[in-house]
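so my prof wants the structure for this chain in the tokens format not the other one, which i didnt know existed until like an hour ago. anyway here's the sequence
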Amino acid sequence: MALKFIIFDLDDTLYSRESGLMQEVGRRIQIWLCHHLGLTWEEAVALRREYFYRYGTTLGGLIARHNVDVHDYLAFVHDIPVEEYVRPDPALEAMLASIPLRKAIYTNATSEYGWRVLRALGVADHFERVIGIEEVGLRNKPYPDAYERMLARLGARGPECIMVEDSARNLRPAKALGMTTVLVGTEPDEDGGVDFVVGSVLEVGQVVARVLNPKAQSQKPKSRVSTDKVASLADAAALVHDGDTLALGGMTLYRRPVAFVRALLQREQPPRDLTLLCFTAGFESDLLVGAGLVRRVRTCYFGLEAFGLAPMFTQAATAGTLEVVEETEASLAFGLRATLAGVGFMPGRGWLGTAMLKVRPDVQVITDPYTGEEVVAFPAIACDVAVIHALRADRTGNAVLGGNLAVDVELSLVAERVIVTAEEVVERLEGPLDLSGIPVTAVVHTPRGAWPTSCYPLYPVGGEELLRYAESCPGGFEEYLIGLLAQRV
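here's what i got, hopefully its the right format
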């Protein structure tokens, strides 16, 4: 039976326990118990513990043992400004976008609370339904009939679903109904209700890819997904092939993957006939052009900012030995968005009334079928390899880029292969991430990997080095390159 849905638990599954949100829910439960049942704080703690083990939730025990206003309880414990505890999570958003299944939340909280949390995380648009406890007759997990009611609400059958939870106890009824089960965390599974275990919800996309791949069906239960992507610089450079479209992240003279370019040039047989894709191209790109590896350039700027023109690009473009695709910020941005959307073009108003349309016959003016107005259809931009330099990354590819993201996130999502070079590689990144590790192919520890471009706040632009390059080239390029490649990588 084909998979149709992926169902996520909400609290402590879709966001980190360290957020403090569930602790605040627990605090409000305590207050409600003390006020309505006349308990001391310590008695309320003991009662919550008893009801959790016997009924699955405090609410389950209240329904079974007390005549209370359930709706008053639910309203009070979830009356929390969730935006103060969770923030938009681009890595989570990217992971969800990578999963080609319909998505729902099933929570022991209310559906209204669930939607507020999803909006605070910036991922509400990915979900069709939030099924709260009020929609399943106030029956909480792990009661089996609650799961049956949840599936009825979705119009789905168990074998059509993947369920993701932070509690092995709550996955057992799902497994009994035929769902594929994914446990987030390290909680032991003593009863065999778990198919896959991941350390972070950000790894769920990889589990789904494995399950959807027929060759992966022979995987043993509870297999932990291998997410260690650390590689050497030489191995990462080997991922670039002749004729590839190579995208280099960063912006102008900031956070450019210079060490990677150097490793590419040090290969015994460097790749040829590359298409270079950069939002802006600078020192690192000029090295590739000067070495004769680039056949075509797609960028809206190519230069060294205050340090002058990019000498090798200027020479090649003037001589006509380099194909230059005329681009602007609009054409690059819309082209990347088209690829992200899985369509052949993205419409926009840029370029209307300009001469750019004469030099780019592949960019067409079309009629908007809804307004009748003319718009420009910017064709989708494909990419084979994207290389992005980060301040910090973990071994799974999650990364922190710093303040200026340029179009690095978009490049990581459109490229077939993504390489992250990082000033520091740690076991696990906590807190807000700029780049999800889901699409990343390789992570390379590369201290000072952007120099002589800057990597704020770690080090500034190497102005003297850039001046030396600008003054030496184009005439002294070969000598400059020999010295550059002699440096240790």
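also thought this was worth mentioning. The radius of gyration is 27 Å.
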